[in-house]
Structures are given as structure tokens and as C-alpha cells.
Amino acid sequence: MRPRFLSLALRPWLRRMSSACFPLAAHRGLLRLRGPNTVGFLQGIITNDAERLKDGAMYAHLLNVQGRSLYDVLLYRVPGPPDVSPDLLLESDVEAVDSIRKHLQVYNFRKKVEVLPCPELSIWAVIQEKSDPPLNRLPSPALLCVPDPRAPLMGCRLVAQTGADITVILPGTELRTVRDYSRHRYQHGIPEGVKDLPPGVALPLESNLVYMNGISFSKGCYVGQELTARTHHTGVIRKRLVPVRFSSPLPSEFHGAEITTTSGKSAGKYRAGVEDLGLALLRLAHVGEELQLKGGGATVSMTASVPEWWPGSGDDK
């Protein structure tokens, strides 16, 4: 039987809160990394400090040599016997799984790290909704249930056997959809996957990697580190991914369109979204102004905001 792990930090939360569960199997995929050199291998190719990955989850980006983001990932340590090097799970956009596997193999020279597909496991998002009487049972038979490291409002990540019944794992939970999950992310400005973070285009610091606990500036060198570190130490980031809301639902053909002020001045670019919610790479000087997006002969007005979970912006500091 596979070992089960529930973060101690989550136990009181799961007892006192009802929750909404979002099945992400069609949206997020997993790779299993196995071998005694796995942590050292990752240390040279991800933005975060792999040696600090213990029993929870870790967020990171894989960069190209120019310092632009290729893939955003979540990493999990699979519990096992203390005398055996643990497997690691790597979660990513399902569309990027094969590309990430090939990318890892490029750097896997003499590391003897196995990078394996993991169709037997699936990812769920569990996000608290409201206060509720204590749950009688903890998540079981979940393999992992740990806080999402990106922001408290993202709840936790649950890893279970593919096809498992979520009503058994979390009795009384409300089952929601991937669309609901995406709307939650976009409402709060959390990017995820290749549409929000186009490979080879997005810059990690403009994508709020620091705010989402996805980078270490003290661990040493990794692929793409030089430009990222230099940008960080200058302290000048004029554009960031921010949540935006449109005056009406937006067709998909607007993705990547130019955003302007009402006077026609360029303000940024729209990345992706669902209906009237989305993300835009916007000059911070224009947050709070009336903005517009043009495409297909139509003009849609929009507003941008600073997320409350950003440092100094609200309660989650």
C-alpha cells in the first residue's frame, strides 16, 4: 500500500472548514522523479531551493538560458521509509508534461535520475469556502494533502489515486469544476500553466514569482539565474501580472491583445482568462485607471487591481 501523508498544518483547517474540491486531472499532469541525485539535479534547473523541500509543496519555474520562464511547476516529496531516497512528484500544465520531461532529460547527464510518467495519480485543488462543524475523518486514502505554497487563498493540493472517489476522501465536500477553479485563480491574480505564462516569453519576476514563494536568491547558480538575480537586485519591476475584470465576457481571440488607456497609450498586454476575468501584464502605473482592449472590431473596457495577498496590499502579508 502506498504511504499516506497529511500536512500537520492542515489538520485543524480540514476539521473546522467545509471545502470545495476541484478535479484537475484534465488540467494538470504529474511526473515522478526517482533516484538518489534527484534533489541535486533539480537544484541546478529550478528557481527555488530544492534542498528545502520537505513534507510540503514547493513552487518554482524552469527557465531558459535567457532567464525567461519555460514552465511553472509544483513539487511534492512522496513520504517513504527514512533510509530510502524519496520520490518527488512534479506537477505542471498537462500540455507541458512531455516538453518538461524532454527538458529534464537534457540536463540529466550522469545524474541517474529517472523521470517517469505518473498516470496513476491525479491532482485536486481543495479551497475552503465557509465555517462548518468539524469533519469526522481526515483525507484518506489521499497520498498527499499539503498547503498550496503560492498563496493562502489557494487552499491545498491533494494527490490521490486516479479515479478515487473524492466524497470518500473528503466527506461532505462540494465538487466544483475546472472553470470554477480558473475563475478563482483569475479573480485573485494567480497565474498557472502555458496560457498564463507563455514559454520563453514570460519573465519570472514580472510573473510575481517572489510573491508566490517560488524563488531563492541564496541557493547559488541555476539555468537562467543571472538575469533574474540582476533584475531582483536592481529593485525595478515596472510591469506585473495583475488580475483584470472586463465589462463583458471576453472571446478567446483577445488573448495576447494590446491594452491601452482611454487616450490610446499602451499599458500592457492581456494574457488569458475565463469570461469576464483574466490576467494582464500591465504597467503598474496604469493600475486603477480606466483601460480598454481592442480586437475583432470591438472595444471592451476593463479594470485592473492589486491582489490583496501581495505583500503590503492586504491581510496576507
Layout of strands and helices, then pairs:
Elements lengths: L4 E2 L4 H6 E7 L4 E7 L3 H6 L13 E7 L5 E9 L10 E6 L3 H10 L7 E4 L3 E11 L12 E4 L8 E6 L4 H4 L4 E2 L2 H11 L36 H10 L4 E8 L11 E4 L4 E9 L2 E7 L7 E5 L2 E7 L13
Parallel strand pairs: 1-9, 2-11
Antiparallel strand pairs: 2-8, 3-6, 3-7, 4-5, 5-6, 8-10, 9-10, 12-15, 12-17, 13-14, 13-16, 14-15, 16-17
Explained architecture:
By secondary structure, the protein is α+β, with helices and mostly antiparallel strands. 15% of the residues lie in helices and 33% in strands. It has six helices and 17 strands. It has helices at residues 11-16, 38-43, 97-106, 166-169, 178-188, 225-234; strands at residues 5-6, 17-23, 28-34, 57-63, 69-77, 88-93, 114-117, 121-131, 144-147, 156-161, 174-175, 239-246, 258-261, 266-274, 277-283, 291-295, 298-304. The chain has a six-stranded mixed sheet. The longest helix has 11 residues, at 178-188.
